[in-house]
């Protein structure tokens, strides 16, 4: 165990679940929060509502916690815009109240931010580039980033693109395509929306590497692969020999979204790679793992 006791706020969510599982092997203690969902299976769970819970009370009872990973919040970009009052209270005021308490206790925050802090006008973004969000969700991320920078002595802000898993039925990008394909459902894939698909296991290892090496500041953590959703769907379907006619070539503008989204936001993760020596897995390796798990499941049911 090379990490001190830590708390994960939002451990019942997709990324939080992965982090709780991973850190249960690397941290002296892991506390994981849930709010409306089921408690996380790994670590010791606690209920925490960013709208209502008192962070002072939580940390008074767990004085040994030294790191707080902040995954909690409303993460759907459309929902942030369409429920502005709620998302401002949760992603803004609620997170700031928590950050304030962390600063008071000198607990290091690890904030999961997003590529949505940028507007996509530049070809590639480094950590030193000025944010310019085009969505409410992106503006809320920038606000919390700034708040953390002003108050915390030592912090980590990691900006992410699209995080995916390789566990069947984990509800992430590729595995949900697989489930849809099995049910012969169409997969609408925008030719003009670009992402950097990054494996959740790499994200956990990366945060571990940053904490272990006592690094602080802002880091971009996104794989070097930069593809349209359409190209990714075609690649995934070919790798798993799925029916390509289920892929529907469409545009991001066909979805009638409440806000204009940047089509291409590319994060440069060179700073992270240079400082830690860590590398990310390719989608090919991850597709192979998903394929292998699919074969094993088919054998099990044969
Ligand atoms: N997934 C990605 O590709 C991606 C990309 C860029 C950035 N990020 C950032 O990474 C973080 C984690 O993302 P995710 O994909 O794991 O999100 P997620 O699956 O939507 O999980 C969100 C978490 O927030 C909790 N939560 C929601 N409302 C809450 C409230 N009022 N009080 C306390 N907790 C609340 C949820 O708990 P319950 O479910 O129990 O209510 C859940 O644990 C987020 O900050 C997100 O913006 C994710």
State the CATH superfamily name of the largest domain.
NAD(P)-binding Rossmann-like Domain
**Ends distance:** 41 Å
Identify every distinct bound molecule in the structure, by name, code or SMILES. Answer: NADP nicotinamide-adenine-dinucleotide phosphate
**What percent of the residues sit in helical stretches (DSSP H or I)?**
40-55%
Counting helices, strands and paired strands, the structural category is alpha/beta
CA gyration radius, whole angstroms: 19 Å
Task: Give a quick set of tags describing it.
302 residues, alpha/beta, Rossmann fold, UDP-galactose 4-epimerase, domain 1, 2 domains, seven-stranded parallel β-sheet, two-stranded parallel ribbon, 10 helices, binds NADP nicotinamide-adenine-dinucleotide phosphate
Short description:
This protein has 302 residues and is of the alpha/beta class. Helix content is 40%, strand content 17%. It folds into 2 domains: 6-163 and 196-221, Rossmann fold (3-Layer(aba) Sandwich); 167-194 and 225-261 and 282-301, UDP-galactose 4-epimerase, domain 1 (Alpha-Beta Complex), CATH 3.90.25.
């Amino acid at each position: 165990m090379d990490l001190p006791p830590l708390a994960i706020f939002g451990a019942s969510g997709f990324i939080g679940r992965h982090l709780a599982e991973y850190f249960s092997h690397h941290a002296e203690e892991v506390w994981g929060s849930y709010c409306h969902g089921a408690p996380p299976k790994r670590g010791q769970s606690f209920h925490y509502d960013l709208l209502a819970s008192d962070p002072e009370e939580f940390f008074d009872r767990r004085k040994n916690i030294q790191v707080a990973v902040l995954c909690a919040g409303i993460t759907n970009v459309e929902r942030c815009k369409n429920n502005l009052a709620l998302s401002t209270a949760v992603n803004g005021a609620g997170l700031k109240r928590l950050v304030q308490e962390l600063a008071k206790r000198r607990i290091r925050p690890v904030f999961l931010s997003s590529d949505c802090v940028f507007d996509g006008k530049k070809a590639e973004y480094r950590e030193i580039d000025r944010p310019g969000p085009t969505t409410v969700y992106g503006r809320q991320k920038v606000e919390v980033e700034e708040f953390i920078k002003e108050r915390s002595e030592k912090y980590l802000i990691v900006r992410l693109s699209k995080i995916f898993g390789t566990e069947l039925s984990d509800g992430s990008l590729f595995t949900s395509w697989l489930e849809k394909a099995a049910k012969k459902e169409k997969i609408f894939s925008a030719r003009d929306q670009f992402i950097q698909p990054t494996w959740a296991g790499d994200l956990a290892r990366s945060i571990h590497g940053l904490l272990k090496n006592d690094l602080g500041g802002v880091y971009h953590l996104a794989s070097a692969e930069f593809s349209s959703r359409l190209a990714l769907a075609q690649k995934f379907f070919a790798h798993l020999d799925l029916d390509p006619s289920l892929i529907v070539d469409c545009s991001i503008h066909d979805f009638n979204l409440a806000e204009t989204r940047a089509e291409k936001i590319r994060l440069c993760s060179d700073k992270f790679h240079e400082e830690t020596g860590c590398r990310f897995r390719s989608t090919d390796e991850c597709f192979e793992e998903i394929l292998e798990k699919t074969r094993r499941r088919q054998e099990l049911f044969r």
